[in-house]
Every structure is written in structure tokens, then in C-alpha cells.
Amino acid sequence: MTTNFKMLINGELVESPDRLTILNPRTEDVVGYAPQITEQQVQDSLVAAKSGFAVWSTKTLTERQEVILRFVELLEAQREEVLELLMAETGKPRDNAEYDFGMLITCLRFFLEEMQRLDQPRIPDPNGKFLHYVSRQPLGVVVGYLAWNFPLLNLGYKLGPALAAGCSVILKPSQITPLASLRCAEIAKEAGFPPGVINVISGDRYPVTDPLLTSPDVSLFTMIGSTQSGVGAMQTAATSVKHFSVELGGNSPALVYADADLDKAVNDIVDLKFGNTGQVCVSPNRCYVHESIYEAFLDKAQTRAASISLKEHDPEARQLMGPMMTLAARDALIEKIQREVDAGARLICGGKAPSGFSKGFYMEPTIIADIDDKADLTCNEIFGPVLAVIPYSDEETLADRANDNEYGLAAYVYTENLNTALRAAEKIQSGSICVNEAFYDVSLPHGGLKQSGVGKDCSRYSLEEFLTLKRVSIRIN
């Protein structure tokens, strides 16, 4: 049974004349319909967010905390309903959907706690004449565009710090996966936020939503998405002075040195690569393996990938992998793989749509070897279940090869030598570098260098982007 969802604007659930049709990538069935926002509703959301900020920003942290924690309680009470909706619109396996939902809860709680820990330091005066201190206050109205791969995690990354800081928000989840986010907005209405504090909209007509970017009433534009989309949005938004915090594309290198724990490296890289069907911004895309262990790495990686199942409720599966999000993305990726094979790359496994599936945008876990650094699959973000493996012999130039790319979001290093690890961490140009195990947590800053964005998600560094920093000086002597 399909459902018509509504947007939350100024504390009211609203529809629109047109709507988006949302498909289940597992079954290709219609999951539900989301409103296609109108020009007037865009203006309504801006007015609402401005008035909502005036109310929310003046509340104490204790007052904000009461409403936010009530929202958390209501979300947890509706957990199963939201999970089912999330799995239907994304095709995620249940464990992945539980992580996605759990991160929304985690972010809402974490940023409240982090707001309580935030310092407002005193600055010493050299002449003893003034009391100087730093004051932090809510920044203003925040507009956020979210990605489709982890809808609720992305919602939490933006909603958590904004609400804790005292900002109001207008959030637009991806037009591909808006339903779980719209349902969470309905739950937020039940929690009792003042009208206009949380506005969640939907649509795919960017000329209609562009006033959200150009409005002088918006203090911060934030997004999670591709570099191309981020650059375009920032160009559009450059009509007034505002803050930007954008987490954009990635093309993460994994460096496996000759002395690495091979089994640990293989298992870690393969599991991270095929998690969420490779549709992860920090997924390892280019895997550089020392020539002395190259073939052994490929053999073990193939075996590890073979234990991944595409079938739901497979009791023998070590890991369940869902479909890709769209048919167009799946077919385009298969074409890219074939072009590289025709050019001389070696297909270790996968590379095609699996047999036995009459519906769904499934693709086999794919490993491709002997591929050039400058190939399309290695130069650009893959965002699918394809691991490109490249041999190397010269350790001195390895970090340079890893850096020879416009992206700089994440990188992975595997070595038993501490000096090697530290040198690699120093030289690699990425916003996060994990040595000997991939690890991410809401307490750790997440963001990119180069064309992978500006600003941070997670940690106190994200919270600070939703706050002003004022210097106050009082003559005391």
C-alpha cells in the first residue's frame, strides 16, 4: 500500500499539487509519493524559518533539550515503522537501515551533550584593563540539502547540531529517498517544536528551490552530495554573505604496504567497499597493493567478496548487499567496467547484473585489477560495488599517487610499521585517514580537503559551524 507523504512547513503538514514517485530499488514497486514543493511554499518555508529562529534561539539549552529529547523518544517509539519505510525506499538490508536510523538518534543526543561541553573562553588582557571573553550564539537560519545514500544519518548530521545550537532549519532530503525523512518530520511536529524551527521539504525542481540558496535570510548553506552539485549550489548561493559547510565527492585510496597484516587489510577493505553497495562517500575506490603481496591480496579479496549475498534472508551469507539505487547508475557502472576490461584491465569477479533476479537494480560485487591510475574508474568517484586494485613497487612515490586526484575525503593505510604509518598520514591529503582499521564516530570530525568540500560534520567542530563567535571586551580598570 502506497502513501502520500507531506512536508513540514511552519509547524503544519502540507501537500502540493504535484508529487514525486518513489520506487523500491529491490522490487521496482512504488513505495509512496512525496510533494513537489511550489514556489510559494519555498517562500513560506523561509518566512517560517526566520520566525522559528527568533523563538528557538532565545530558549535556554535546557528548554531546547527538553523538546529534542522528546523528539528522540517519539522516534524510538516509531522505530519499526521508520525502519520499514527506510528499507523500502533505499533497498537497504536491515542491519544497514538500523545503523542509518541509529545515527539520527545518536546525533540528536550527542550534539546536546557537546553543546553543554562547549567552552566560551576568557582571553587575558596584557594591561589588566579589560575583561575579554568569547561569546557563542546561534548562527541563524540553516538550509541543508541531503544525500540519498544514508537518508537519516545525513538528517542527523545537520539536524543534531542545528537544533542544539539554537538554529532553525529548512532541510531538503534527496528526491530519490525523501520518505523516511518526511516521516521523521511528522514525528518532530508531535514533539512540540515551535512552528518554523524544523521545516522539511521535498522536490527536484531546482529553479523552484533556488531562493533557499539566494535568500539573504539564510546564514548557513550545508549539503552532502557530489562535488559538481556542491559547486553549483555554492555558485547559486553567492548572492549574499553566508557560511558554507559542504561534504562532497570522494575517491578514497587504500594503501596496503608489503608488511601489512594481509588478512586484516583484505577483510577491512572488502567489507567497507561493499557496505551499502559501495554507495558510500568514504568507500575505498583505489586500492594500491605492494607487488610482493598483490596476487595474494586479489585471491583473498575474491574469496571474501564471494561470501557476500544479494539474497534477502540468506542464512549462509556473511554479509548481505542490497541493490544500487537506480537502474541508470547500475547500467552506467557496468559499461565503465566493460570499457576498462576492453582496455586491458583484469576482471577478478563480478562486473555484471546477477542472474536470478527478475526485478531490482542489483549488481554483483566486483573487483577489477591491473587498472591504470588515470582510468575513469580510478580518477572519479565510483559510488558502486567496484573495487579497483592497482599494484605498486615504489613506496616513496605511493603517497604522491594517492594524492594525484582532485578529491581528498578519506584514505586508508595498512602497515605494521609505525614510521611508515605516520609518514603516510602526514603526506596524504585527506580529511580523515584510518590506519589498519576503518573507523568513524560522531565524536570525530568528518569532512574533506581539495574538491571534497569545506567544513565538518560530526564532533564539536561541526557544532561550532552553527554558532557565531563574538569577542566581548569590558573595561574593568
List keywords for this structure.
477 residues; alpha/beta; Aldehyde Dehydrogenase, Chain A, domain 1; Aldehyde Dehydrogenase, Chain A, domain 2; 6-stranded mixed sheet
Walk me through the structure.
With 477 residues, the protein is α/β, with parallel strands linked by helices. It has two domains: 3-248 and 452-473, 3-Layer(aba) Sandwich (Aldehyde Dehydrogenase, Chain A, domain 1), CATH 3.40.605; 252-443, Aldehyde Dehydrogenase, Chain A, domain 2, CATH 3.40.309. 39% of the residues lie in helices and 22% in strands. It contains 16 helices and 25 strands. The chain has a seven-stranded mixed sheet, with helices on both faces. Helix 2 crosses helix 6. The chain is globular. The N and C termini lie far apart (73 Å). The mean pLDDT is 96.
Topology:
Elements: E1 3-4, E2 7-9, E3 12-14, E4 18-23, E5 30-36, H1 39-56, H2 61-77, H3 79-90, H4 94-117, E6 122-123, E7 130-135, E8 141-145, H5 151-165, E9 168-172, H6 179-191, E10 198-200, H7 206-209, H8 211-214, E11 218-224, H9 227-237, E12 243-247, E13 252-256, H10 262-274, E14 284-290, H11 294-306, E15 308-309, E16 319-320, H12 327-342, E17 346-349, E18 366-369, H13 376-379, E19 386-392, H14 398-403, E20 407-408, E21 410-414, H15 418-427, E22 432-435, E23 449-450, E24 453-454, H16 459-464, E25 470-475
Parallel strand pairs: 1-5, 8-9, 8-11, 9-10, 11-12, 13-14, 13-21, 14-19, 15-16, 18-19, 21-22
Antiparallel strand pairs: 2-3, 4-5, 6-7, 7-25, 12-24, 17-18, 20-23
Helix pairs in contact: 2-4, 2-6, 3-4, 3-6, 4-5, 10-11
